[in-house]
Amino acid sequence: MMNENILEVRNLHTCFGRECIHEDLNFEVRRGEIFAIVGGSGSGKTVLLREALLLQEPTAGTIKVFGETPRQVEKNGLRQRTGVLFQHGALFSSLTVQQNVETPIIEHTTLSPGLRHELGCLKLALVGLASENGRKLPAQLSGGMLKRAALARALALDPELLFLDEPTAGLDPASADALDDLILQLRDSLGLTVVMITHDLDTLWRAADRAIFLGERRILAGGTMKQISGSGHPLVKAYFQGNRGRGAREAAWNPG
Amino acid sequence: MTARLPPKSAGLVFEADYPRVRLTGYWITTAIGSLDEPMPSPGWWPGRAVTIDAGELRALDTAGAWLLGKLIGVLESQQREWRLENLEGHRRTLFELVQSRQSDIRPVEPPRRQGMLEQVGRASHDHLNVANALLAFIGESASVLFNHLIRPWRLRLPLILTEVEEAGVRAVPIVALLSFLLGVTLAYQGSVQLRIYGANIYIVDLTALTIFRELASLMTAVIVAGRTGAAYTAEIGTMKVTEELDALRTIGIPPFDLLVLPRILGLMITLPLLTLLADVTGIFGAMLMAKSLLDISFQSFLDRIPEAISMASFVLGLIKAPVFAMIIAAVGCFQGFRVTGAADSVGRQTTLSVVQSIFLVIVADAAFSVLFSWFGI
Ligand SMILES: Nc1ncnc2c1ncn2[C@@H]1O[C@H](COP(=O)(O)OP(=O)(O)O)[C@@H](O)[C@H]1O
Ligand SMILES: [Mg+2]
Q: What is the mean pLDDT of residues B300-313?
């Protein structure tokens, strides 16, 4: 069971009208893995994530989640086994943060309101938000708090598969580190599988087990971070060998 | 809930002969609902030492770990000593992770219910505030409008023309159709009555007067309020939610100049024209009906119109239109600016905008009637 593929992408093509952004992508994500999707802005990472979430249909190719086709996923209610942190949070703006986190719990369980409330507070505490923030509306939160609240909602049902779109963007460095820790802790304690898009090289070096690098409509490099950063492709080189890239890599190899 | 998966459940067994609590089944979010009363009664075991056995646990997630923490809390409050057995590996890690956050959690008191008197008081206060803000907004519009009218080269003509197209040209089919139907209905009802008295030709007086003087302008204003006023609120409101208004301000473009003024001016140009259109199609509908029901030819219908109503009545009907336009555009934009933060607020303010502008249009219409009768026109 350990090498079971949670997400499988085969011969994926995506085109918007004439313009194609993915040509023949192939990769798979295994259970318990933290898998990163890397690439320049506009390289089609968010679109790929939306396709994996079955929110958008690829032009050609297949995507299997939990080994099932999208139709079966919908039919068998597997959606509640996935959690998503959208790039811009996508919190329900008319609900308080606490209500946002409780929404999936209300929908899919029969827990008492008291216990539900406590679980909501627990999820907020896990992502580092004080219980008092639960009373606020999303519009009253800062960018970083919004990200964390959205993560708390994604974790509400303890999903097996967690999708994160730029989780550390907009967080201060200390919070970003804490978020990396949390993701690692959750993976270790819950056996979570995480698929994340990130530009944060620190997160990549610390948390990602494997990654793919998107560029020029294809996967330019794939494998462990070490393998990817050693790739000879000029785009990948430019990404990792820039000033920021080198700093993060050195920090990863000389911790402390 | 999932239909295909077998229902999972969580269990908790208190054994009295051997002081042990056994956790069984799936302690996960979707299953712990089956644990009704998970806490031991104080009389369950007279002794102190208790073992918690997690060996039969099939699965544990944060919700299960939280519940386990609560169980331990209750045991401690009963002055018992507890020992957790057979919770190994990643489950132990999870339990410790959840326990470590327990001190951060302070369930928040739900907000206090408001009494009757307080609700009435707050509502009145809010309404007064809104009325006040609307007055201020209309004042500001008037002053900016005046400023621009004495410096007309600073007006944004292309935007005004876009508004004329959006609110006017595109509304032509619906305004024409609805006022045509209105004319038909009016003439039908009138002719049924007039035929009884043999006063067929007075159908012209009846329809022309009501359409020219009242119904065309009122009907058009109502359609435009629902169509264009609502759109103004939704658009400005959405821009407010997405901070586009703030972006405009920082670029040095007053949102008022860009979003409000062209709309007010555009609608003040458009609404009289639409009213004129409604006049024409309404009368046309009435003419058709008069011909088919009362045998009044188009020619005699048209000949009768100048005798039936004065030029003044016709003009008065049109004069109201710019005032209605001002009301609709001002209320629509005003409610757009009143949107706060969230998406549901856009919907609420849009509803308010339509209701208020129709209300104010009818009030203004009544005021006009009073005014005209005062002056005897
Ligand atoms: N609905 C859409 N219609 C047309 N083009 C789109 C659409 N969504 C995304 N794109 C294009 O696809 C490309 C990839 O976008 P995206 O996946 O958001 O990039 P990123 O990798 O930065 O997340 C961009 O060039 C974008 O313009
Ligand atoms: Mg993106």
A: 88
d(CA A150, ligand 1 centre) in Å: 22
Residue type, A79: R
Residues of B in contact with A75 (CB under 8 A): 4
DSSP state of B6: P
Q: Name the residue with the closest Cα to ligand 1, atom 14.
A: A44
Cα–Cα distance measured from residue A201 to residue A241, given in angstroms and rounded to the nearest whole number: 11
Q: Which pTM value belongs to this model?
A: 0.78
Q: Which of A12, A15, A18, A21 to mutate to test the pocket of ligand 1 (most atoms within 8 A of CB)?
A: A21
The tens digit of pLDDT for each residue in B201-259 reads 899 999 999 999 999 999 999 999 999 999 999 999 999 988 888 888 888 888 888 89
Ligand nearest to the CA of A20: 1
Q: Whole-angstrom Cα distance, residue A40 to residue A239?
A: 8
Q: Does any CB of chain A come closer than 8 Å to the CB of residue B107?
A: yes
* Burial bucket for residue A63 (CB in 10 Å: 0-12, 13-18, 19+): buried
- Residue with tokens 């009289």, as numbered in its chain: B272
Give the nearest partner residue to A122 out of B30, B98, B344, using CB atoms. Answer: B98
Distance from CA of B42 to the nearest CA of A (A): 21
With beta carbons less than 8 A apart as the criterion, state whether B122 and B114 touch.
yes
CA pair distance B207, A170, nearest whole angstrom? 66
Q: Are the beta carbons of A31 and A6 closer than 8 angstroms?
A: yes
